[in-house]
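Phosphatase, orphan 2, pasting as requested.
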Amino acid sequence: RGLACEGTISNSLLLFVCFGNYFLTAMKFLLVFDFDHTIVDENSDTWIVKCAPEKKLPNGLRNSYQPGHWTEYMGRVFVYLGDNGVKEDEMKRTMTTIPFTAGMVDLLGFIGENKELFDCIIASDSNTVFIDWILKAAGFHKVFDEVFTNPAAFSSTGYLTVQNFHAHHCAKCPKNLCKRKVLKEFLDKQLERGVSYTQIVYIGDGGNDLCPVMFLKKDDIAMPRQGYTLEKKISQLAQDLSPVECSVLVWSSAVDIMSYLKLLIKK
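C-alpha cells follow.
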C-alpha cells in the first residue's frame, strides 16, 4: 500500500495506474449493442412466428399487445405456440436461421480478435434463450462479456416462458427494461472492479436505445442505424436545440462500425 505507479504500452492503448491494491485500466473501450435490427437484421421475437400454424398469429392475439408491455405479449405468443405443439427443437432451428445485419459477422469476428481492447455487452428487449441460441450457433457467444435481456426458460411442459428483466422508474422506457439503468449499473460494477472506459460506443436502432444514448458523455459515441427510429429521435433532439452530449455516427452496414473501431485503436 502507498505505492503509486504508472506505465504505458505502445500507442497508449493501455494505461495502467495502480494505487496500492487497486488497478485502474484506462484506454479500454466498451461496446454496447442492441440485438434486434442491430446484430440481427430482424426482430427475433417476430421471427419466431414462423413456427406458428400458417406462420401467423390469430388477430385476437396480435391485437392484444399494449404499448410498453411487449414482454407480456410475447408470453402469450409462447403459450399459443406451446398450445399448438411447437417444441423447443423446432423453435431453435427457426431462430438460428435469422440473418445477421450486413457486415456484422465480420465485425463480431474483428471484436473477438481484439478482446484485450474491447469489452462488449448486449442490452436487448429480446430474451436469453433466443440470443443464446443465435450467438452460439454462429460462434459469437464469447465475443460478449454480458447479455442483459429478459430471462427466458422452458417449463416442465415444454412451453417457453419469459419474464421482465427488471423493474425501474424511468417514464421513457418500456416497463420491463431501461437500458440507461442497465448501462449505469454495469459501469458502476466495473468501476468497483477497477475497470473504467476511455470511450463507450453505443450501437443500436430503436426508440428504447435513446434513453441510454442520452446518458452518454462528450467523449462517447452513439452509432444509430440509418433510417431507423434511434437516428430519427437523435435528429429530432438536435432540431429542438437539445442535442445529445455524445458524438453521433450513423451506420448502414456493420462495415461502417468496424471502420470506426479500427481508427479508434490506432489513435
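Note for the archive: The two ends are 33 Å apart (CA to CA).
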